[in-house]
Specification:
Layout lengths: L1 H20 L6 H27 L14 H12 L5 H18 L2 E4 L3 E5 L2 E10 L3 E9 L7 E8 L3 H36 L1 H45 L19
Antiparallel strand pairs: 1-3, 2-3, 3-4, 4-5
Helix pairs in contact: 2-4, 3-4
Length: 260
């Protein structure tokens, strides 16, 4: 049994080593495109985006937000030789502004790690900033002569402890917000009870009137029952005496007899 386990572990280890050593083979033209995209990212792209992020009006003395996407594309192509998608460039500047505010200005740019994914060339670059390291990702079209930037992002790098601390703070803020909203909702519901208090008093008053009316009707019904009983008794006595008139008969009281 022990030997069997050793054999299984050896096979698994061999497969893992084969997988780790497996590399993707690219053609010469693909390698050239990837190399060119990496050079554009590290030599032009990151520097241009960080410069515009720090000085938004560096493009022709006008804030980049004043340009249309087509105008941004034309300006980059004509004056800088950097082919970009205008919408992607504007979003990339926003990402660089946020990232630089967290990590500080870029001090040095590392070597690019380039991969080919279908019709896209992905360039990942590690940058050392004033406060912390950051990861920059730029995506280009798989073009032979002029790769076009279609996306770029600047992400400050945080340690695991910093991430956990940030996640905990977000959790506390989220739970606090929920509790505050529950307290507000409870307070609003309690106000509904105050506003509808007059209606409840009115209902009690109406119920009291209804009970009084029913009691009066009950008393009248009881009195009517006694009068009918007196008439029945008088008629029974008259029949016993052999007369048809009840005149002269007076019923002074009616008492119930307890039967044994």
């Amino acid at each position: 049994m022990k030997k069997f386990r050793i054999v299984i572990l050896s096979v698994i280890l061999g497969l893992l080593l084969c997988a780790c050593g497996e590399t993707t083979e690219y053609t010469a033209i693909q390698n050239k495109r990837m190399e060119y995209a990496g050079m554009i990212a590290t030599s032009y792209g990151i520097n241009i985006l960080s410069e515009v992020a720090l000085e938004p009006d560096v493009i022709g003395g006008v804030p980049y937000t004043d340009y249309t996407y087509d105008e941004l594309e034309k300006f980059m192509a004509d004056y800088i030789g950097f082919s970009v998608d205008g919408y992607a460039f504007a979003n990339a500047v926003d990402s660089f502004q946020k990232g630089i505010s967290e990590a500080g200005e870029i001090v040095s740019i590392g070597e690019p790690v380039v991969t080919l994914d279908g019709n896209e060339i992905i360039v990942d670059v590690e940058c050392q900033c004033e406060k912390r390291f950051a990861d920059v990702e730029m995506i280009f079209t798989n073009d032979v002569y002029n790769p076009r930037m279609t996306s770029a992002a600047f992400n400050a790098r945080y340690t695991l402890g910093e991430k956990m601390s940030k996640a905990g703070l977000n959790t506390v803020i989220g739970m606090g917000t929920v509790f505050v909203m529950l307290i507000v909702i409870s307070f609003i519901i309690s106000l509904f009870g105050l506003f509808s208090g007059g209606g409840r008093k009115k209902d009690k008053t109406e119920d009291g009137i209804d009970r009084a009316v029913k009691q009066i009707e009950k008393n009248e019904t009881a009195e009517m029952g006694d009068a009918q009983l007196v008439a029945v008794i008088a008629a029974a006595i008259a029949a016993y005496e052999g007369t048809t008139s009840t005149d002269g008969f007076v019923v002074r009281s009616i008492r119930k007899i307890k039967r044994q």
